[in-house]
Amino acid sequence: MAMETELKLALNEADIERLRTHPLLQGAVAEGRQWLRNTYYDSPDLALARARVALRLRYQGERIIQTLKTRGQSVNGLHQRGEWEWDLSRDALAPEYLSASIWPTELPPAETLALQPVFTTDFERECWQLDHAGAAIEVALDQGWIRCGTSAVQDAILELELELKSGPAEALLSLAQALSSEVTLTPFDDSKAQRGYRLFQHGQDQN
């Protein structure tokens, strides 16, 4: 297991180019852009959502990655939670990896839940790697959409994620403050999964 620690920040579309030309990112290692397609799964009664668990398949180039994220904490945009990832050889969930040792105890075994797609998040991610305040940090600019099924229900993604790779978590806040010298950044606590579930519920209420 890895403990994911990241800071989520909302920004305005008008600030994107100012962000890219910020001196800190100009001195960082740019890793380019890639398109990420993600499908989130849950039981018909949304048991995972109630347990604050996110289970997804990510399509990243030729890779298929299954990710499990468990309940964590989020304060002023700073998220900390458990995360497990597995590379898969087929385009389908692999419940056999979701063993009792990592699966939340309040949930029935994964293989009994009839897991099915609930919503998707499809976005372009532009990444930079840099060292700041004694920490190694990945900066990711995400732009795209959250969608539910084939309906017209969707929500835009435009956010900056600062993910801690090593070092003190306080460095994320320091970097956010430094980047804010050129662009307006606002911390927010909702993950893409939380927004996806809210969008799904909205679609259900409209039916």
Written overview of the protein:
- The chain is α+β, with helices and mostly antiparallel strands and 207 residues long.
- The protein has one domain: Hypothetical Protein Pfu-838710-001 (Beta Barrel), CATH 2.40.320.
- It contains 5 helices and 10 strands, in the order E-H-H-E-H-E-E-E-E-E-E-E-H-E-H.
- It has an 8-stranded antiparallel β-barrel with strand order 1-6-4-3-2-7-8-9.
- The protein is globular.
- It starts with a strand and ends with a helix.
Summarize the entry for a quick read.
This protein has 207 residues and is α+β, with helices and mostly antiparallel strands. 18% of the residues lie in helices and 47% in strands. It has helices at residues 16-20, 23-26, 47-50, 170-179, 192-206; strands at 2-11, 29-42, 54-60, 63-69, 73-75, 78-88, 116-132, 135-147, 154-166, 185-187.
Provide keyphrases for this structure.
alpha+beta, Hypothetical Protein Pfu-838710-001, CYTH_domain, 8-stranded antiparallel barrel, single chain, 207 residues, 18% helix
Instruction: Give me the strand/helix succession.
Output: EHHEHEEEEEEEHEH
Relative helix content: 10-25%
**Distance, first to last CA:** 39 Å
Give the CATH level 1 class.
Mainly Beta
What is the CATH topology? Hypothetical Protein Pfu-838710-001
The global form is globular
Output the structural class.
alpha+beta
Low-confidence spans: none
Q: What is the annotated CATH architecture?
A: Beta Barrel
Q: What's the total helix number?
A: 5
Oligomer: single chain
Strand count: 10
How many structural units, i.e. domains?
Answer: 1
Strand order of the largest sheet: 1-6-4-3-2-7-8-9
Domain CYTH: 2-203
Protein name: CYTH domain-containing protein
Organism: Marinobacterium weihaiense
